[in-house]
Amino acid sequence: SKLTNLGHLEMTWRSRVRFHPLLVRILHKSRLRYYGKPEKAVDMPYQAYFEVADGSGMTSMVLWSSLCPEWYNSMKVGTVLLLEQYAIKDSYPFKTKPTPGDSQMKRFATIEISLNDRNPHTKISIIPEEMVKPEWGLPEVKYRFITRSELDDLPHNYSCDVIGLVTFVGRAERARKREHCEDFWLYRWAHAIDGTSDHPFILELFATSQPDVFERIHPMTYLVCTQMRVVRDLTENPSSTIYLTTSNESQIFITGWHKGQPYTKDTKVKNFIQWMKLQSEADQIKKTVIGGYYPFPRPPDNFSDY
C-alpha cells in the first residue's frame, strides 16, 4: 500500500482527515499510566507514550484506553509497527521526553500520533524483525551505555544506560508520591558491578510497568537498565553521593529477559559479557547481599548536622 512518513505528516496533517499507513520502529517506551478518577466513568483509563521513528525522524505516539491492555506488552523497544487509521494531534507540552541514543535524529516535537479504540479504531500490525526490509530505511535502536569508571565525570541529570552484575538488592520500599496523599511509588535499591571500578553502580529502581522483572532482581543476575538519570547531591561531596535513578522511559532487564533485545549488539554490553567470562562465580557470590534497610544517601555523621 502507499505509505507516508513522519516528516510529510508534520507538514500536511492539518489539511487532511485520513492518513496513509505509517511504518515506524519503537525507540523508547514509557511506563503505563492510569488516569482513572472516581467521578469519571472511563472504562479503561490507561495511557502509554512511545517514541517512534522512521527514515525522516522521530515523534511521540500515544496508546489509549482498551488498546493498552491489548497491545502494551507486545510493543517493545525495537518493535516495527504498521499503523492504519490513526489520528494526529498537537503534542502534549508537559510530557517527559527521553534522551535519544542518536543525537543527530530529527525530532518532530509539534505532533503526536494517537492510537484509539474508536473515532477511528486504529489498526495496528506488528512486523516480525525477519520480515523488515533494509529499503524501508527504519533506524536502528541506539543506546548510551556507560561504564562505572565513566560515571563520576557525568553531570547531574545526565541520561544513560548501564549493565552490571547485581551484588546487592534491597527490600521493596514505598514513598508517597505527594505529601498527604494515599498514592505511593514502589522502589528498591540495588548495586551492580561491571569491572571498570572498585565502586558499584548504586541504582534506585522504581517499579516500572514490568512487575515480573522488578520482583525477580536478585544477586548474580545480569542487570540492564535503560534511560537512567544521574543524581548528584551537589551540596555534599558530589562523588560520594552519586547514584542512578529510573525515569518515566526506563526499561529493566535481568537474566532470562536479554535474548533478542537490541542492546545485545552494543560494544559495552559485549565488553561486560567478556569480563564476566573471566570471573569466578564462587568469588562473586561471597560478596553479594540481599534484603535489609539501605539508608542512602547516607545521613550526616552527627545529629546536629542532621
Q: In the CATH hierarchy, what is the superfamily of the largest domain? A: Nucleic acid-binding proteins
The domain count comes to 2
CATH topology name of the largest domain: OB fold (Dihydrolipoamide Acetyltransferase, E2P)
**Continuous helix count:** 6
| Outline type | globular
Helix percent reads 10-25%
- The class by helix and strand makeup works out as mainly beta
- What CATH architecture of the largest domain would you give? Beta Barrel
Pfam families: RADX
Protein name: RADX protein
Organism: Cephalopterus ornatus (Amazonian umbrellabird)
InterPro entries: RADX
Fold topology:
Elements: H1 6-12, E1 22-29, E2 33-34, E3 46-54, E4 57-64, H2 67-71, E5 80-84, E6 87-90, E7 107-115, E8 123-127, H3 148-151, E9 159-169, E10 173-176, E11 184-193, E12 201-206, H4 211-214, E13 222-231, E14 243-246, E15 252-253, H5 267-277, H6 281-286, E16 289-290
Parallel strand pairs: 4-7, 9-16, 12-14
Antiparallel strand pairs: 1-3, 1-5, 2-3, 3-4, 5-8, 6-7, 9-11, 9-13, 10-11, 11-12, 13-14, 13-15
Summarize the structure.
This protein has 306 residues and is mainly beta. The protein is 12% helix and 32% strand.
Describe the overall structure:
The protein is mostly beta strands. It folds into 2 domains: 131 residues, OB fold (Dihydrolipoamide Acetyltransferase, E2P), CATH 2.40.50; 158 residues, Beta Barrel (OB fold (Dihydrolipoamide Acetyltransferase, E2P)), CATH 2.40.50. 12% of the residues lie in helices and 32% in strands. It has 6 helices and 16 strands. The strands form 2 sheets. Strands 1, 2, 3, 4, 5, 6, 7 and 8 form an 8-stranded mixed beta sheet that branches. The protein has a 5-stranded mixed beta barrel with strand order 9-11-12-14-13. The mean pLDDT is 92.
